[in-house]
């Protein structure tokens, strides 16, 4: 490719049309819509506008973005908007990062049952944290939990897991004081893992009894209740991966982490290296390896690359960021206000970002000239599919 920076859109535009013909009946409507959105993103197909620099008079055409949540180019602004809303939720306490991962056999059946299995992953992970956190033997407090779903491994394989961001403490049952975690320690990982495994398998078996699971191909026999029970049995004995990372250094590091993780897609454009006759080459991280050698490159046939990318398309309307406990949307404001009162947080929180940040964002120009740095203004808009017949007239001094 002649591009200085390769993009997922380049791969879809060049190889997508022919590949779709070979995949008839194998791609869902949601996957086809994602492909179309990424192919058209920031192209004339979506319309756009002409910008003019107020300083040097340079004209520039800017095409509209697709705003699809699976598009690598459209997530940065969405993440910034989400983070501005979440900044007000931070408390001056330690924050912990926990990860709940599904075993490979369940990940295999999750692909054809995304809404059900991913939904259970969210709810059981949150239930596990709230239950153990509320147990007087461990903490005895009502926690707040933010969970973010990722369905991919670094090599674009199907690897469903949720990242949890949890304040290090919670409200006592009487609501009259704050109970803090032991410094540097959240909850026992082994206890979390055992409860998560038991509750998830119970909920999965109930979903099977309710007829909410579908099975195809090599898993078709699991539609039978007895066969499904036999299939579940080994999963009750194997280890389920739940781990807690070191606590964040402070509220600022929580925001920095969230800005990288909340709106991440299966692969960013920055990881792409080349598109040539061999296929698509990209960087990936082998977590089983240690040291410098864990950073590697991989080359996939373009069709296989697109197949892996589309594995991670979520069902329509499925929320990949969810809040529970003190941070649940229905009572977040009241719970956080009470927590701040019990933590004796001043109304103007010195640990939060300075108030001037938001005001600066509101006055910063939306478009800046790449040549002289002055603001650019919109002088002409054109709709989807409309062409620009001639350059806009330059104003005379």
Short description:
Helices cover 34% and strands 19% of the residues. It has 397 residues and is α+β, with helices and mostly antiparallel strands.
Description:
This protein is an alpha+beta fold and 397 residues long. 34% of the residues lie in helices and 19% in strands. The chain contains 11 helices and 13 strands. Strands 8-3-5-4-12 form a 5-stranded antiparallel β-sheet, with helices on both faces. A hairpin with a 6-residue loop joins strand 6 and strand 7. Helix 5 (114-134) crosses helix 6. Mean pLDDT is 86; it is low at 348-362.
Tell me, briefly, the overall form. globular
Q: Give the H and E element order.
A: HHEEHEHHEEEEHHEHEEEHEHHE
Q: Termini separation (Å)?
A: 42 Å
Tally of DSSP β-strands = 13
SSE class: alpha+beta
Tally of individual helices: 11
| Neighbour order of strands in the largest sheet | 8-3-5-4-12
Fill in the keyword field for this structure:
single chain, 397 residues, alpha+beta, five-stranded antiparallel β-sheet, three-stranded antiparallel β-sheet, 11 helices, 34% helix, 19% strand
